[in-house]
Amino acid sequence: MNESTIIDALKRGERVILECKKASGEVPKSLWETYSAFANTIGGLILLGVDEDKKEKNPEKRYRVIGVDDPQKIITDFWNTINSDKVNANILSDSNVEVVNMDGKQLVCIHVPMADWRSKPIYLNGNVYKGTFRRNHEGDFHCTERQVKAMIRDSFEEGNDSLLIEHYGMDDIDLDSLHRYRTLFQYRNEGHVWNEIDDKSFLKNLGGYVVVRESGKECLTMAGLLMFGKGLSIRERFDNFRMDYIDFCNLIGEERYSDRLTYDGRWENNLYQFFSRVIPKVTFDLPRPFRMEGIQRVDDTPQHKAVREAFTNAIIHSDFIMESGILRIEKHDDKLVFRNPGLLRLPIEQIYEGGVSFARNPKIQNMLRMVGYGENLGSGFPLILDAWKQAGWEKPELKNRIDVDEVELVLPLPSTKAVTTANELPKGLTDGLPKGLSKRLSDELSKGLSETAVKILKLIYLDKYISREILAEKTGISITSVQNHVNKLKSIGILKRIGSAKSGHWEVVK
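-> structure tokens emitted (510 positions)
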């Protein structure tokens, strides 16, 4: 630190990572709450010898440098206290504490890093539930018992999903989900010895089912139940956890959303079913440039892989035990949003750099990796960044939402305005359509018609007897959403239905 960097820090006035205290003659007692809060959040800077007027909104007027009387005494007292039983752990080194001269006055600067996830929580006075603090834009606050327990869970190196779920066994497994997974596993791992064993043995090898050696008892693990369990069994054991997918694209009139997948009794609410059903929905509208390998067209792109990686990360880093935790995936016209319960275990800067990853749910991570989802060695997030950079899209943004104990990843998508201003359809979308129809669709796009509606019309043009169910399957959206797009196409006079819903057919108005 020097005078310039201190001035910059005060001008920014970012309260979540900056704390100023008078401390003219001694170490303030409140410093230790800030030490705990910074360590348990994202780290921060404590400046001793700066007075703060918290009512003042202008950062340039908010802080007044007054200096400390005897910086060496304060530093000695600080080290003596931090190495006592005042705090449960000292995570600082000598380089984290320094004296800086500013306008002839001396300040003590204490850099508190974010504590390693294996060391959290950092707490005071030997009481983990009453002495643990975190930080927000208002300052330091006492952690709730729920937040403390979450930090304690995160400190286990073996992860969360090894938890034994006693009294839950193979009767609580949805065999359809498990068999779908096994089919994909066999395709990805041809000749693997696990392909020939029974379901229970297969689940044991995956880490989803265990036999406790000491007692001989058998039960599912948290990973096994959440990935392949029956919805009712999951809700009985984890009634706090929810999965939700919402599509906000192409809304018509007063619609709140165009598609949604949540608890509705029509599917087994386990992670594998949710993942399998939502992946086609979030990747369907991504651009697919025309590319050939030999005589085959390759539709998978780095951006498709990146979205799958983002979804995988949201699952393997979720704290499924957290109260009111929601694994929520949102699709918007201009972005994809992935939210998972539980804060980041690593500093954001380290995640952007890659190379290190500590999943909360390593068994689930391995289950997904065995069928082709998820990168190794912390390369997943750099893969996402690189894919978006290759496409020339805005940089993805990772947010640690401390106020609601969740992580949010925003993947910006190319604006639909690029299509309408060009007044032409995306390349490849008009293949197989006559010129006049393509021109009409281009005009309608400029007026707000969605690309999904165009894709539906193209499918209908190629097969006038196609059903709404097949349209939903091919476009990756719900039947209700298909009907909304059909209604829009009818309203602009480009589509008609001839005959009944069962025995009739479509007619595209050319």
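The first strand starts at residue 18 and ends at 21.
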